[in-house]
Design a protein that fits this description.
Length: about 425
Amino acid sequence: MILLNKFSKAIAVFASVCLISLMGCGKNAEVKKPDELSGTISIAADTNNDQIIKTAAEDFKTSNPKVNINIQPMDTASLLSSKDEKYKKYDLYITGEENMQEILNLNSKLFYDLGSSITDGKGSILKGYIPNNSYNGKTYGYPWYTYAYVIYYRQDLFKEAGVPAEDIKTWQQFIDAAVKVNKSTGKRIVTQESTGRLYSILLNQLRGGYVDKNGKSLISSNVSINAIGVLNSLYSEALLYNSNNISNEIRNDKVSAVIGNSSNMTAVSKSSPNMKGKWQIIQLPAFEPAGNRSVTFGGSSLLLNKDSKNSKLALDFLKFLSNDKDVNVKLSQNFGTVPICIDVSQSIDLKKENNFFNGNEYKLYEAIARLSPVVNYTSRYSTINGILEQNLDKLHGSNADINSIVIDMDEEINGI
């Protein structure tokens, strides 16, 4: 990812905002009568969000019973970044925001220019999410939702260790607190994120990037070293471990805190209702006092096949996904998604009390999405991410050689 130059991008971003806002974001779409919409839409959806789109599709079909929606879970980034023409059989694609620049750099000609054709409504979306969905001045993707990153912690365990979690403002304070809690209770911090992905999240927090404008590696920059340093402290002290199933770790009472996103604890609140009242939320700690604590990552974007024979119906469904408050509220409550549409993300329904967290989570998630740094992902993201994953796993344990890890990653990224 490359940090956006806000001055050089200002005109392009403004134009994109004007174009994409024409979709009527946040205004429940002017849905046609059931007998007016009919046909079939084929959707290629990332495997990590196929349940989300299935839920939305069911709601759409309730109002439009003559519409059939076929959803195929797959690696959409690989499909759309290749020369394989299998993509042609799908009308709509749902992929991760981090993949958008790579996809558009290779195959922007495949997709509908949303800004030039959608003409209803006057809503607006968080403008920081538009650049990743744009290429050469055109807006091909619609940023649908994202996930907010926070720290979830056990109030009772932190209190037992004499640690006031609400006073934690920096990563060093969090690490010191985690040491005390671990010594007092024997419990550790868990994350569902891979080590490489967690590094990317910390780098986002610092407004950093993998490469500069000339494509040269920034892994050895001070910003990058700071992010790696936090990871090294967490792993070398044996405070943090990775798990693919946070719900199980919490259910088995192994965890004092979670470094995670809004989807993680939405799942936990459903699988472990007996834990309600024990968990609370704070923002991610900053790297320095008064530093940035707002980070989002892992959102999804919508792309429309410009050669689709069902483009009109697919466009109606895309509008429904982006505009309909009711369906986006349901997705937020069931999957922890944070809508990019301002009107939806600020909807009163998203702030209803939730007994699990005493009702403060949605308001925090919304604020994080609004304040999160504007980051533009490099078109070489997937290759660089593979390098990160391979090398940063070496941080696990107490004898990691950070200097060697950084040198290896620098060389590999510069050799792409």
